[in-house]
Write a structure and sequence with these properties.
The protein contains 18 helices and no strands. It is mainly alpha-helical and about 400 residues long.
Length: about 400
């Protein structure tokens, strides 16, 4: 199947990422709403772990299930469960129910991501074409963040704010609708041999280069989560804006992230992946330093508009680095490799959210930009070593 033909069948994959983005990144909204009910920031930071750790844990065992059942069927099952979960959320009241809800969502996302990446890799082989398609599909993830923040922002600013949980019914409708789209879409699913985690298989994925790659994935998601889940709280607590304004401003981070991935999908074939990736990191660091300087000089309102622009350079990082690595992975091993990516992404998300929650809990939120910039520096150094390993061979 050619790239052109496959690209015409990616609507269901794009919508899948959009839907999962909405349910995963409603965390910022939940944190805002539950923090007003005297739930501590430490507890809210741990809530992220209930979403991410099941993703990591299930990924270890989902490969056999997905490879035996098929990528497409696995994705359909995950979408159906998400639709059911979003249908019942408005009736959840206790905090511990949210832990269970996010755990189920996390498990479904782990399955979905392995399935989607498997479908993409089974049809495309070259680095730049992978980067193009993955950036396009991953762009839908950022669009989902934008839509969920805009939609719930309007809902929370309306007279129906007390019924904000019913907004998840719209996500449920989208999930069931996409289920039908995917059900009717013809996609090449790949092999059907059984895959198992073994020492010999895992050993090939834990050489120096792949360890560096997984470290970079961990760092990228660490940084992304500090923005996606906690930027609304930062705006509200330290820039003194309303809940509506906090969510709207955060939504524009996602909008610019979407634009960044769309642009990347169209121009990446003209650039070296390594230079493109490193340039994006430099821009992120410079903008974070400018943001911190503006906060120090009490020009906080400017940072309200500066932070969203970071999305232009943050969003391309994950699909660009992933496409370079995945291009060298055998098609038969892609599900196992993707599951490892999911594990390290989940760990990065959990550690990032727990870390930033301590900043807020201890009234250190004014160092928000500095904290993230340190993580960016570490990713830059690790990435430099990683890309250098390709040149040295």
């Amino acid at each position: 199947m050619t790239v052109k033909i496959f690209s015409s069948n990616t609507l269901g994959l794009k919508m899948s990422f959009l839907i999962f983005s909405m349910v995963l990144n409603c965390m910022g909204i939940v944190i805002l709403q539950l923090s007003d009910t005297q739930v501590s920031y430490n507890k809210l930071g741990l809530l992220e772990a209930f979403k991410d750790l099941p993703i990591a844990f299930v990924s270890l065992f989902a490969v056999n299930f997905i490879h035996r059942l098929g990528n497409k069927k696995s994705l359909l099952i995950a979408l159906f469960i998400v639709g059911v979960c979003c249908s019942i959320l408005p009736f959840l009241q206790d905090f511990w129910f949210f832990k269970i809800w996010f755990s189920i969502i996390g498990i479904c996302f782990g399955m979905a991501k392995i399935a989607v990446y498997g479908l993409i890799r089974n049809n495309i082989s070259t680095e730049n074409e992978l980067a193009k398609v993955m950036s396009s599909v991953e762009a839908s993830f950022m669009l989902g963040i934008f839509l969920v923040n805009i939609g719930f922002g309007w809902l929370l600013a309306s007279k129906y704010a007390a019924d904000w949980k019913f907004g998840f019914w719209l996500i449920a409708v989208l999930a069931f609708f996409n289920f039908l789209i995917l059900f009717k879409t013809e996609l090449v699913d790949g092999g059907t041999r059984t895959q198992v985690f073994s020492k010999s298989i895992l050993a090939q994925f834990f050489r120096r280069r792949t360890v560096l790659f997984f470290s970079i994935i961990f760092g990228i998601v660490f940084v992304e989560q500090n923005f996606n889940s906690w930027l609304p709280s930062f705006y509200k607590k330290h820039l003194n804006v309303s809940t509506f304004s906090a969510l709207q401003a955060s939504a524009f981070l996602a909008l610019f992230s979407y634009i960044g991935r769309i642009i990347t999908a169209h121009i990446i074939h003209k650039f070296s992946l390594a230079k493109y990736f490193m340039t994006c990191l430099v821009f992120i660091f410079v903008m974070l330093m400018v943001a911190h300087l503006l906060l120090t000089l009490n020009y906080s309102q400017i940072t309200l508009f500066l932070f969203p622009l970071i999305g232009l350079f943050l969003a391309p990082l994950y699909p660009v680095i992933s496409s370079k690595m995945i291009a060298g992975i055998k098609k038969d091993d892609i599900n196992i490799f993707t599951s490892l990516m999911v594990i390290f992404s989940s760990l990065g998300s959990s550690v990032g959210s727990i870390s930033i929650s301590f900043l807020f809990q201890n009234e250190l939120g004014s160092y928000y930009a500095i904290f993230i910039s340190i993580a960016v520096i570490i990713v830059f150094i690790t990435s430099f070593i990683y890309f250098k390993s390709f040149v040295s061979k």
